[in-house]
Amino acid sequence: MNKDSNTCTLRLDNRGKKSINERIVNACDMMTRIYQDGYYPKMTVFRSWSIHNPVIEGEFAKPEAYRWYLKRELLKLIQSGAEISISPSRKILSLNEPKLLDAIDEDHWDFTKKKLFLFPAERIDLSLNRLEHYTGTDAKDFQRFILFTNYDMHVEVFKARYPDCVKPGRKVQMPAYHHKLDDNLGITLINIGVGPSNAKTITDHVAVLRPDAMVMVGHCGGLRNHQEIGDFVLASGYMRADAVLDAIIPKNVPITPNYLLNYHLQSVLESENMTYRTGTVYTIDNRNWEFMKERVVQGIHISRSIAIDMESATLATNGFRYRVPNATLLCISDKPLHGKPKLGEAAQTFYQNSKQKHLGIVIKAIELAKQRYPDGLPNASIRAVDEPLMSGGA
Predict the structure, then answer these.
(1) What is the phi/psi pair of residue 353, to 5°?
(2) d(CA 190, CA 131)
(3) Are 153 and 167 a contacting pair, CB within 8 Å?
(4) What is the pTM for the complete model shown?
(5) Coil, strand, or helix at residue 292?
(6) Cα–Cα distance list, 279 to 34, 124, 233 (Å)
(7) Model pLDDT, residue 292
(8) Sign of CA dihedral 377, 361, 231, 330
(9) In 3D, which of 123, 200, 157 has the Cα closest to residue 358?
């Protein structure tokens, strides 16, 4: 390939914002062209304001899938005075190449890297391939705001609300549905099935798209006497009894939902006069935990949890790990410690009565967040200690 024709430099000048936007579009086109020609596009950023770390760089794969994110971050950097160069790097490594596993081994990652360059190019390639496999939809269709459910009923509500949404073209393990808007400002819903393993698997791959938010829209067992079936639970913290990410994120690392997402969810709950409680959600890896009640209830009492489920803490922990703002809104479907276990007929009645309201609350909260934070939710709480904002600092 002619590398000179696929190299460009971006910097702030006196040609105006329109010119900047045009050059960013051209730069993103170039990144796509480089990838299509069989090379990873490489981005090098020179930040004159940084004394100790003026040059940051990284490679990308399938840049068209998260083009909206690249455009936004490039604009921020250029407006702050950074100089950015884009050029071809290495030849793309085949996903069938045994060396691929060495390149994507997270034990060798630097998780303090800037979010723009967090994922190696090989990992992006593999994750987007697997994402399309699991969800049955193209990676480019994913929107900035991603909801997770494990019930078909929420899917039916979503499809009724957005009849033109993009749907899977075949039967898949974790079907995704996309209400697409310009600049990927819409909402994606993924039915991830049941369990923490599924929650980790899908968020490992979704995180590569750099979404603005991930929200768990699920059901739970209410653990307090003064809760009723149909009440909502807004997680303020998590008891990690799922064990899925313990070897990666120590259990003594505090995991909390994004404050602003919770603020907007709570605002909608209040405006809709919904009954809800905030508190700790106990996430477990055993659906039949009632068969070992004494051991589990001890953990519930110690943690003062108000609800129990199988996905929320896993999703939140992976969100923390990959620096994606996240939150959890659950609806109580049973009260296992108070003589109201989840039983077939009663559960179906509850689902029919709750499904529209539940999804509607989360969508309203996301709309509020989009209006107030068009450039993405502030995420200082999940950045690394030595990772200031891309647009300034060290």
Answers:
(1) -85, -20
(2) 11
(3) no
(4) 0.90
(5) helix
(6) 48, 35, 7
(7) 75
(8) negative
(9) 157
The tokens describing 378, both together, are 């502030």
Per-residue pLDDT of 21-40, as tens digits, reads 899 999 999 999 999 999 99
pLDDT value, residue 92: 96
Task: Compute φ and ψ for 51, nearest 5 degrees.
Answer: -80, -45
Residues 6+ apart with CB under 8 A from 312: 216, 218, 220, 235, 238, 281, 283, 328, 330
From residue 121, how far is each of 41, 56, 124, 202, 315 by CA, in Å? Answer: 9, 15, 5, 18, 23
281 near 330, Cβ under 8 Å? Answer: yes
- For residue 308, give both structure tokens: 């129990």
Sign of the alpha-carbon torsion through 278, 284, 290, 293: negative
> Tokens 């009645």 correspond to what residue?
349
Q: Which two tokens stand for residue 212?
A: 């603005």
Bridging pattern class, strands 187-191 and 176-179 = antiparallel
Task: Write the burial class of residue 194 (CB in 10 Å: 0-12 exposed, 13-18 middle, 19+ buried).
Answer: middle
Secondary structure (3-state) at 374: coil
Of 27, 40, 30, 37, nearest in space to 119 by CA? 40
The amino acid present at 175, given as its one-letter code, is: P
Can you state the percent helix, strand and coil of the chain, rounding each to 5?
A: 45, 20, 35
Domain 131-375 falls in which CATH fold?
Answer: Rossmann fold (3.40.50)
Instruction: Scan for tokens 């391939």, then name that residue.
Output: 129
Amino acid 351: pLDDT: 59
Which residue do the tokens 């209830």 mark?
A: 297
Rounded Cα–Cα distance for residues 368 and 265 (Å): 9
Structure tokens at 199: 């929650």
Tokens 């899938």, residue located: 65
Instruction: Give CA–CA dist 236/274, Å, rounded.
Output: 17
pLDDT the model gives residue 151: 85
Residue ranges of the domains in the chain? Answer: 3-118, 131-375
Measured CA to CA in angstroms, residue 370 lies from 119, 145, 175, 178, 373 at distances of: 25, 9, 25, 17, 5
DSSP 22-55: HHHHHHHHHHHHHHHTTEEEEEEEE-TT-SS--E
Residue 131, phi then psi, degrees to nearest 5: -60, -45
pLDDT digits (tens, 9 = 90+) for 264-296: 999 999 999 999 999 999 999 877 677 777 788
Closest to 278 (Cα-Cα) out of 333, 245, 233, 315: 233
